[in-house]
Structure formats: structure tokens, C-alpha cells
């Protein structure tokens, strides 16, 4: 194919320090007039004739290359924004120069990459007397350049079905803006030779250059903006709440921030037998919020806004957990006047219905469903149903053995207490227990081989389940770790009670009549079976996301030693102490039937992952005081830390409720990655270490600490 | 005026705890059929017959009122969204009940307020057998209620020119949702009886209910969203950068965050004459960022995005300054490939022109001008010019004696060295000084009386200026604190040199030939004159905002003892050490002519207030190292804290630049308030104290601190 001849100019390359302005015409104009040979595919990952940047000659040459500090022109296009329509246009492009390939005696192809895409540059030795090509050959991979050139359509055979794969840019001039050192710690464009994550985190500024991470960040920004726009359209007001807040006894541990500006009066401590006077300053601290829960409730209580939102940074000083970050982002919202919706004209109200929302906070539900539908439509191209399934905690635990059931597959638990004789039922009733089963029939095409894989061992391992398998010859295999299934009688009794046939497998487990906690033994077994069934290729999960609301959680749970700071009695709050009880259970709460009280809490679950949760809050100060004092039995000091909230409720706070969605987790799901680190620009490791900024770190000197009234702690081993 | 009769129902009021669902029809239906009397104006601030909520009877009655915890219906409208078009509609409203007035034998008016507006409720004793009126009369002011009623147009005489002033809502039922305690600390709707700010900050949840603060928060949210939308439209990507960052020696003092999770190996310290072993743990800290400067530069260096923005929370641990907050918000952006614009085709380039942008970063300028135009158009209805005036630092200092000149008034300084005889000129030259003057002529209508007010005293006070006033009889008054003006000769010499006539006043001051710092004595005097001239009513500033770019600041300033941690030699960075020199001055920089080096820094000034600043950054690692090592003479440890940035520059960083605007200050200007606390939901005092959350505060116990490897510091007085 013959390309048109064209007058081209070369620019003086690599401005030296303090040089005068580079002139566009400091080199004589030359005519470029040649026939381009057949070019091979560009954008191919490792072409055989690639110029390796590790080449010693290239390294030596590149060390003499300088950064360009003089003026340069504006870019005209992104690398990813050009198309065949631009053929014939002169363009100015900027980007990272990737390894080139020789494709003819005097013709080279170089991919030029920016965050928007990659374009093929064609550079001939005829340009600028060969200086341009010589320069480009000397430029180390991943250096930044500014290119002037002309867009042309590739010959049909050379077109590739990639963005920009049908065009190339014939280079007329190249200016090196900033050379990349050689060798780089790793080459981000060489996706087949990436080092381990920990190494890449140290050089995050190279890792971020990878298209996949760069794409995740852009998607995150797009989703955040879509969420904001949708919420603004629904009358939400974005309000920034303090990051420097006060320590509260609310949940996981907080980060403290010592202050210089406000050290209180020293508390004098007499030093025995010493003439010098010693005193301890009392250091004062802010704390970083685990969520904006208190500020947002105070804001709504104030009446300044009736719909609040914030994409809020939150902080949790937890011992490193895999895939947790000490700082994370929440889509946080709160609404005044949240109601029961169209009640009492809604005839379904109060009906036992598996898809009914029987609590307050209807406006929160509607807002979130609308928001999620918008996001899935824009990002995934999936139109979600106009409302999501609602399931009570009790139903979720009974059918799926989980408070965040994965409803993409149907395998369900069954309550089988009544299939056993009266003595068994009496024994269970005495323990206030029920008996549940999970059965895989020999005719099951999805879980049969998974059930065989789980086998005796897994059944015994699955904390307290009892397995009965009917072999093909009718004989029975059983397994359990626990002798307590003796009450069920012989394996044959169980087989008969559950009507098991040859090839069937059943697991049985007891659990308290009133469900507790996040999952049961059979619930965990159900997930294990699904994992194995997927691995075996027998279970294929639907592509469509399964969103689910779980509601009506128990408001209080038996006190957990981990939460002792928030519960000195028998009970602690299942979620947080501001959640309102269901109005039907208020009397029970005041009567002390605490286990029976359900909260107006709602969790949003996606494919078995909890992506958010919230509640209608207590707006009645007397009720809130009862919960703090009588149920949670908080100390006076602890109650004092909530005194401003209680007072705000007393000043005419509207009924209100809200929710928070985990934005990092949501983005990880939308970016189809397992790790939230892939959707955070500068993440920390599971241990809370920032390998790039090398933090946390010691402070320079003890004097710095003393400004805050603190010092290194002395550890004494007796 | 006769209103139509209508069947109305009354709802049982104030659900008791654990009560069954309130029934809509638990009271017999009644016919309301009466002629409404002439109603007085509602929404009037203190009508004579107002029902005072401090009334003892009301307080007693209200104490028996309970919060409503049972279901209630969805609201149908905002109080501010109703208009005459809704006349005849049944509505469900929620809001705060304000003090009512009796307007007829059996008719009361109550304003109902929500964040969107206020509407007049009309309630008759005929509704629900009088129970509704009785309830409403017992409801304390600022309580929250849910109202059902019917919208009607007011009789023409009763219409008021206020939003909603032409309609009212005839109440059919009222439910008290939450009673407000009596007395409240203050009544937010009673704007004429507000307590001092400090008191209101303690009860911020009441203060926020005031319409002015609530309006500010809504405007802030509107502007933030407009900014985000505009930046998204311009290809900017919002990226969240870490709040838990590493301490850097960059500027003002940082907040430290001690960590529990990562305490390094103890550094053993032997204890003399003791058998026990003592050791100090080495506590490790994050630091909160003063700005996202380093993360944003690393992000752009990475190439992940080429246009970054964030509305970012920043932290500064400064000793309390008036109108500063320890946490504040910046509109932060950074762009790769910022250029000289259409250079070199732009013929103005390099011309000495008072309105030319001769540095890089053209794309930053354009983005910000576009953004500001959008905001002023949407919020203020003002169409700003398509580009803002540009002035070099040198020109700003010469003409206005300020690096952030208020150009809304024209009073300018003049350079007058040359009007004096050679010996004077020589003396000034020896000191490398110049002589400037500010003259108010007797014919000046704007500043004449201000000049007289400033008088002898102020002239002497204005740090080093020399004043000469020609009285009407031709005699001369002079004032100065400083004998150094003797070189100018007698007052008559000065009068003649400046051609002063009777009634004229002139101030003279010397300053270094190369301008330094933020303002000169005459610059400060100029602002004082303007303040006095405004107070005298002679100077009226134009309503249109005056935006101005100030560019070409000196890159380095003589080291300031406050900044010693960033400069061990003679020089410190005027802004920050990442600012690039103007390319024309690079050679001077390497040659050690440091005072002459101008930076590619730009400040955005509005009406004499700096609202933002930024720069083109150094992208050349060798240049950055020269600045760190040779000019600022940083220690190895200090340089090490920038090592990741230097390495990122070496890995092919693109040329880049950015800016940050102070969002709190910008909003204070748009909300026409002097205090940024009025545009922050939960502000701290100037001393950094949060009076609502009562932070900072001591931690509960020493044990908590020990988890972080720290303890209270012991202070020893010998």
C-alpha cells in the first residue's frame, strides 16, 4: 500500500537544562516519500522481534537522556480517542512509549499508551534525517514522550479487532519528556511478568500504570459520580462530617489522634522522697470515626437536611484481617421521616409474606434499590427488577442457614423435628432445639458429585452435623463428631424418617429454636457443597446478580466477651444501640422478653455477600435511655458519651433511618476482582502497612511526642 | 370567605409504647362546617398573641407527651413545595411545629417548618371534636409532627409575598412524632434571641435547624456536585487518596496517629543497678495529610489517570488561628501533560504583557476558570469573563503592595525613586531598595476622608511608612516612626518631588528592589484606606467579583526560622519544594542565582482573598534532587522521606501540575458569611475544640495508651 508523501519536521530532542526554546524549524525540512512495507500486528503482547529494554546498549544510551523542562505544545487527542475518522489528521499525542519492533528495513512500530488506550506509531528512518528513529530507539521503555504525527488507516490485512487496531500514526516528530530509568523494578506493560503483589505495592506508582488497575479507578470514579448524581436527583444533600471526632464506646477499636493544641491542666503526682516536682500532663485525643453514625443522626435530628449522604472515609483499628483496610469508604445515607410507606392503605401490611418489608424505613429501601439499579444498568448493562426480594432473618436462617444467603442456587434446609418420634421431639424441646436437615438425592444433577466429595470426612468436620449416606446396595454410612445424635435412634430410623433411598446423602444438625448468629453448621455445609459443585462443573451459577434484603434481625444478642465495653449485662446490641425495635415488639422489650425483640434493621445481600446494612433508629429519648441503661447496662461514663445524642432526640428529632454500603466491596464486585486492594489507589496490606509510603513509622524524636504530652511506654519485665 | 365543608377524621394521638396500630377510624367522624374568620398574617416573627412555649401549663402538659413509635404514613409534600396549584389537594406533611396564634374564637394558625420551607396550618376546634386543636396547643414548640390536611388558597387580603404565603393547610389530623423538651437551650426559629456562637456550637443540633445554616449546607452540597459534574465532563477522575499517610517534613505540623497493629521491635535500654529488664517499645505512627500533594503526584506519575480530582479532607495541627479549622476541605486537582497551551503558535508568548500567562499549566488555568464560571453562573447568576486577569507577582507587589491584590478599587502605588535627586537614588541603590508612594489627592472623592481618618497616627503606625500631608494653608505635616527618611531631604523636597498640592496626602515607603513576602507597608495601608473609605460611604465596591491570577512568584525565599526543618541553608521554598522553576530561569537556578528564580506557581485571588494556589511540578528527578540537596540542603533523612517521589519521577513520570482551592473559604464567600464555621456542619472552635462532641478528650485509661506503645509524658520541674 502506498501512503501519501508528506512534509515532516523534526524537533530538537531532550532540552538541556536552561536551554533556549526548542525551535520547530531548527532542522531542515525533509521530504518523506516511501512506500510502507507490510506491517505486522501491533499491540500484540510479546512479539518475537521486540526491542528489549534490558539491552545493555540501550541502558547506557538512555542514561545520557535528559528530561525536557522547556515548553511543549498541548496534546490534541488521547491515544484511545482516535479512529478511522481521524485518518489524515495531524495530531499531537502524549504517553508512555512501549517496546518497538522493526518491521522493515527502515521502519519501526512503537505502541504509545496513555490511560485511554494504546495506538501504534509508525516511524521511518527517513523522518528528520533518521534522528527521530534514532531517538525513539534510544528511549527506554515506559518513558514519556510527545509525538506529532499524522493518522492513517492501516491496510486491511493489518487491521486488528482492538480499539485503535485499524489505524496508526506516522510520526513526524518525537520529544522525549521524561526518560524511565533502566531497568525498572518491573515493567507494568509486561503483564505476563508481574512480580508478587507485595513487591508491586512498594512501587505502586508503577503498578497503577497497569491498564486493569487504571480501569478500576476510572470505574470507581464513574460509579461514585453516578451515585452522587442519583442521590442529588432524589433530594439528598451531601454533608461532610468530622474526621477528627471523639472516642466512643461503639464497636471496633478506634484510631486516636493526640493533640498539641489542647493539653489540659497537669494532674500532679507527688514523688516520694524526691525534692523535684513531677507531674503528668493529661494528653487529649481526637478519635477517627468508624462511621459517621453519630454525626449523621445529629444532623438529621437537627432538621438542617432531611436527606443526607456522604461517600465517607471510615477508620477501623482492627488487627489485620485479610482484605480489610484500616481506612475504607462507605456510601452513607440517612433520611428523616422514614415511614412504613403506603401503610395503612397497604393491605399486605402485617401479613406473613416472604417478600414483604414489614418494618419502617421504606424510603431507604426504595432509594437503595433505585441506586443499585442505576449502577448495574450503567456499569453492567443489566436491568434489575424494580424491587428486591425481602426475607426475614428467621426465614433466611431456616431456609439457608445464613443471615446473608446466597440465593443463586436453590439447595435449602428443611426442618425435620416432626418426622421423628415423640421421645426425640421431647428431648429436643427440652434443650429448646430443633432438628434440620440438608438432603442430596441420588437424582440431583447439581450436587450429587459434590456430596460424594464432601464425604464422611467433611460431614464430620462440619461442626456438629450428623451425616447419613445410603450406599447403592442400601447399606448405611454415618459420620459425626458428636455423640448427641444417639437420641435419633439407629441410622435406619433416620433413613426412614427422611425417606432416604440408595445414593441419597443427608446431613442433620440441631440448632436453638430461636436462630442466633450469622450461620449454622448446615448453612456452612451448603456453601461448601456449592463450591465443590461449581468446581465439578455441575453447578453453574446464574450471571444475573441476586440482591436480597434480610430484615427483622434479633435486636439484641447474648453478650459476647468481645463487646463487653458495650454490654455489662446479658445482652449486647446485634448491630448498634441506636437501632429501633419493631413496633410490635416494643412491649416485649419493656417487659424484659429481650430475646424476642426484633429490630428494624436491614442488610443488603448480593450473591451471599453483605454489601450494606442499616436501620430505622430510635428517636424516642426515653426508649434510647432504657436500651442504654436497662438492657445494655452501660456505665454512667459510657452513657455520658452519648449524652449529646440523647439531648438531640429530646429537642424534637424526627423519626429517621439510614444505611451504609461498603463502597470498596461494591467496587471489587463491579470490577470482578477478589481483592479490594485492586480498587483502591494506595491500599495498605492486611497488616495495615503502607509499603509505598512506608507507614506507619516511628517519629523523628521523643521531643515531637512530648509536644503531645505523650512518650514511649516503658515495658518492664520483672 | 366561606370554605367548603369537608369530612374530616382525627387520629389517636401519641402512640403509647407497645400499643396496637393506631386506627384511622377510632374516633367518630365529624362534619367540619364553619366559616373561617379573617386570618392575620402568618410567618410573622413575633406576633403579639403568640403562644409562648415557656408557659408553665404548656410545659407540664408537654411532659406527659410521648414519642410516637408506631407506624405512620409517608409524607406527600415538603412544606416548601406547595403552591396555589395544590389548592384542594389532601396532603401529608411532616415538620417542626412553631408557635401558633389564636386568630378567632375557635381557630388557630401554626407555622409548620421543614428544611424546604414553612407553611401555615389552620386548625379549628371543630376538627375531631376539638381534640386536634387541644393536642396542637399542648405540643411544645420545635416538636416534630405529622399533619394531614387540605391545601387552600388564602383570601387575597391575607396573602403574603413569601414562599407559600398565598396558601394554607387546613388540618384534618395531627400526630405528635416527637415532643421537644421545654425549655430548649434556645429556640432556633426565634432568630432575634440567639445566644452567643460558643453556646450555639454546644447545641449544634439546634443551631443547624436555623434556616440560614441549613441553607448554607444545601448550597455547599449543590456547589460540590456542580464542581464534580463539571470536572467529570472534563475527563477528570475522582481518586481517593489515603488519610492515614506518613509524616513528611513538608510544611505546617501534622497530626500523628499511633498504631496498635504495628509496633516494632523494642529497643532495649539497660537500667542501671536494677535487676528488672526495661525496654522501650518503639511506637509507630501514621500522619494525617496536610494535603494530598504526594499521593496525587504519585498518581499522576503512575499514568493511571491523567486528570485527577478529589474534594479532599486535609488536616493541619496549627496553633489555633481565628477562622482556621484543624480539618478543612480542598478542591484538589492534578493534571498530566500540562503545557504552555498553543505555544509556540501563540505570538504573545514571552512578551512582557500584564495580562499574559507566561508559564506552563495552561490546562489548569482553563479548568479552574471554567469551573469558577460555572459556579458563579449557577449560584450567583453572574456570567464571569471567559478568562481572568493575570498579573505577575512583581507587578502585583509594585502596583498594589500585595501578592493577593484587591483590584475592586484602583488606588495604586507608584515607584518614585527617580523623582528624587541623585544622592537619594544612590543611597537607595546602595541598600538595594526602591522608594514607593501612595498619594491621595484633595480631589479624590473616594479616599479623601479616609486619608484624613488615617491621619498622623496611623501613618506612623503603618510599619515604616513616611507621611507627608499638605494642609490647606500650604503648611506640611509629616509623620514617621523611622529616621531613615532623612535622606529624602526636607518635607518640602518631598512635596515638590511628588507635586503635592494643598489637601494632598502622600505616604512613602522603601522596600527591597526584588519584592519579597506577601505585602508591603503601603499595600497594607492601601487596604486600610479602603476599609475606612467604605465605612465612610465614599468607596462602594463593585458587586461583580474580581478574579485574578498571580503568577511568577519567587521560587525560593530567604529561609524563615519557622521553616527550618525544610531548609538548612539560606533558602526555603516559597510554596513547596515540588514547584518547577520557570524554564527561562533554570540556568540561573543551577548557577546559584537563587533569588532571581521564578516559579511556575499560580495563585487564584478573589476580591483580595487567596482562594487557591498551585503550580507546575518538577518532573525531572535530577532537578528535584538538586533542589532538595543543593538549594534547600535537606538532610539525608529528609531526602529519604521523598525517595518514593523521586523514584516515581525516574520511572517515566509525565510533566504535570495542579491546584487546590479552599472549599470552606469559597463557600463562605458564596454564602456571604465571614466565618467558615457557618458553612461546616460540625465545626471546631479556633482553638480546635469541638464543643458538641467534647473533643479532644482524655482517653479512658493509661492501659489504652499502652496498647499503642505510648504513655503520658512525665514533666519534671527541677
Description:
The structure is a homodimer of 718-residue chains. By secondary structure, chain A is of the alpha+beta class. Chain A has three domains: 6-192, OB fold (Dihydrolipoamide Acetyltransferase, E2P) (Beta Barrel), CATH 2.40.50; 196-337 and 663-718, BirA Bifunctional Protein, domain 2 (2-Layer Sandwich), CATH 3.30.930; 409-541, Gyrase A, domain 2, CATH 3.30.1360. Helix content of chain A is 25%, strand content 23%. The first copy, chain A, is built from 18 helices and 29 strands. In chain A, the strands form seven sheets. An eight-stranded mixed sheet of chain A has the order 9-14-15-27-26-25-22-16, with helices on both faces. A five-stranded mixed barrel of chain A has the order 3-5-6-8-7. In chain A, helix 5 (211-233) packs antiparallel against helix 7 (362-380), helix 6 runs parallel beside helix 16 (643-650) and helix 10 (448-461) crosses helix 12. Mean pLDDT of chain A is 84; it is low at 1-54, 264-275 and 344-354. The interface between A and B is large, with 170 and 169 residues. Strand 12 of chain A pairs antiparallel with strand 29 (714-717) of chain B, so a sheet runs across the interface.
Amino acid at each position: 500500500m502506498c501512503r501519501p508523501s508528506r512534509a515532516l519536521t523534526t524537533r530538537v530532542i531532550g532540552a538541556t537544562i536552561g536551554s533556549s526554546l526548542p525551535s520547530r524549524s531548527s532542522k531542515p525540512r525533509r521530504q518523506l516519500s516511501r512506500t510502507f512495507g507490510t506491517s505486522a500486528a501491533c499491540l500484540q503482547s510479546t512479539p518475537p522481534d521486540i526491542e528489549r529494554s534490558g539491552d545493555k546498549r540501550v541502558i547506557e544510551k538512555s542514561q545520557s537522556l535528559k528530561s525536557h523542562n522547556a515548553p511543549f505544545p498541548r496534546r490534541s487527542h488521547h491515544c484511545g480517542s482516535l479512529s478511522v475518522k481521524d485518518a489524515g489528521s495531524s495530531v499531537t499525542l502524549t504517553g508512555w512509549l512501549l517496546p518497538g519492533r522493526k518491521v522493515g528495513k527502515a521502519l519501526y512500530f512503537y505502541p504509545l499508551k496513555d490511560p485511554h488506550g494504546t495506538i501504534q506509531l509508525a516511524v521511518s528512518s527517513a523522518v528528520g534525517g533518521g534522528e527521530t528513529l534514532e531517538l525513539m530507539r534510544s528511549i527506554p521503555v515506559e518513558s514519556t514522550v510527545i509525538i506529532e504525527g499524522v493518522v492513517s488507516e492501516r491496510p486491511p490485512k493489518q487491521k486488528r479487532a482492538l480499539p485503535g487496531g485499524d489505524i496508526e500514526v506516522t510520526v513526524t516528530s518525537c520529544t522525549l519528556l521524561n526518560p524511565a530509568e533502566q531497568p525498572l523494578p518491573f515493567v507494568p506493560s509486561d503483564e505476563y511478568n508481574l512480580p508478587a503483589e507485595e513487591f508491586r505495592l512498594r512501587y505502586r506508582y508503577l503498578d497503577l500504570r497497569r491498564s486493569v488497575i487504571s480501569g478500576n479507578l476510572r470505574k470507581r470514579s464513574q460509579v461514585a459520580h453516578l451515585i452522587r448524581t442519583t442521590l442529588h436527583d432524589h433530594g439528598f444533600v451531601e454533608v461532610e462530617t468530622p474526621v477528627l471526632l471523639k472516642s466512643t464506646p461503639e464497636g471496633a477499636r478506634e484510631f486516636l489522634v493526640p493533640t498539641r493544641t489542647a493539653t489540659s491542666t497537669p494532674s500532679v503526682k507527688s514523688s516520694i522522697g524526691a525534692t523535684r516536682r513531677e507531674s503528668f500532663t493529661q494528653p487529649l485525643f481526637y478519635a477517627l470515626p468508624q462511621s459517621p453514625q453519630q454525626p449523621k443522626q445529629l444532623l438529621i435530628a437537627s432538621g438542617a437536611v432531611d436527606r443526607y449522604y456522604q461517600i465517607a472515609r471510615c477508620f477501623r483499628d482492627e488487627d489485620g484481617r485479610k482484605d480489610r483496610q484500616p481506612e475504607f469508604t462507605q456510601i452513607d445515607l440517612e433520611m428523616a421521616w422514614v415511614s412504613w410507606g403506603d401503610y395503612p392503605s397497604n393491605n399486605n401490611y402485617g401479613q406473613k409474606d416472604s417478600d414483604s418489608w414489614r418494618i419502617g424505613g421504606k424510603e431507604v429501601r426504595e432509594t437503595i434499590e433505585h441506586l443499585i439499579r442505576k449502577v448495574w444498568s450503567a456499569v453492567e448493562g443489566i436491568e434489575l427488577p424494580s424491587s428486591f426480594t425481602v426475607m426475614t432473618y428467621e426465614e433466611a436462617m431456616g431456609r439457608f442457614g445464613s443471615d446473608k444467603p446466597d440465593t443463586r442456587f436453590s439447595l435449602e434446609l428443611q426442618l425435620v423435628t416432626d418426622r421423628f418420634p415423640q421421645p426425640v421431639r421431647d428431648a429436643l424441646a427440652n434443650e429448646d432445639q430443633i432438628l434440620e436437615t440438608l438432603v442430596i438425592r441420588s437424582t440431583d444433577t447439581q450436587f450429587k458429585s459434590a456430596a460424594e466429595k464432601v464425604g464422611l470426612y467433611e460431614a464430620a468436620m462440619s461442626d456438629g452435623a450428623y451425616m447419613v449416606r445410603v450406599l447403592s446396595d442400601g447399606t448405611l454410612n454415618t459420620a459425626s463428631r458428636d455423640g448427641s445424635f444417639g437420641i435419633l435412634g439407629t441410622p435406619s430410623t433416620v433413613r426412614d424418617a427422611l425417606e432416604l433411598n440408595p445414593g441419597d446423602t443427608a446431613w442433620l444438625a440441631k440448632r436453638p429454636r430461636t436462630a442466633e448468629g450469622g450461620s449454622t453448621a448446615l448453612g456452612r455445609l451448603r456453601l461448601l457443597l456449592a463450591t465443590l459443585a461449581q468446581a465439578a462443573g455441575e453447578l453453574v451459577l446464574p450471571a444475573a446478580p441476586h440482591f436480597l434484603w434480610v430484615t427483622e434481625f434479633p435486636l439484641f444478642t447474648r453478650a459476647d466477651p468481645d463487646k463487653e465495653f458495650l454490654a455489662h449485662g446479658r445482652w449486647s446490641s446485634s448491630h448498634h444501640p441506636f437501632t429501633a425495635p419493631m413496633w410490635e415488639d416494643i412491649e416485649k422489650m419493656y417487659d424484659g422478653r429481650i430475646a424476642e425483640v426484633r429490630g428494624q434493621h436491614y442488610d443488603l445481600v448480593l450473591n451471599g455477600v453483605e454489601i450494606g446494612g442499616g436501620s430505622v433508629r430510635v428517636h424516642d429519648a426515653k426508649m434510647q435511655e432504657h436500651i442504654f441503661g436497662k438492657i445494655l447496662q452501660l456505665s454512667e461514663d459510657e452513657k455520658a458519651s452519648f449524652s449529646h445524642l440523647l439531648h438531640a432526640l429530646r429537642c424534637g428529632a424526627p423519626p429517621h433511618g439510614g444505611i451504609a454500603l461498603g463502597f470498596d466491596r461494591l467496587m471489587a464486585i463491579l470490577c470482578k476482582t477478589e481483592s479490594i486492594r485492586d480498587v483502591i489507589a494506595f491500599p495498605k496490606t492486611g497488616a495495615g502497612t503502607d509499603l509505598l509510603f512506608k507507614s506507619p513509622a516511628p517519629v523523628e524524636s521523643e521531643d515531637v511526642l512530648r509536644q503531645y504530652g505523650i512518650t514511649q511506654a516503658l515495658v518492664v519485665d520483672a
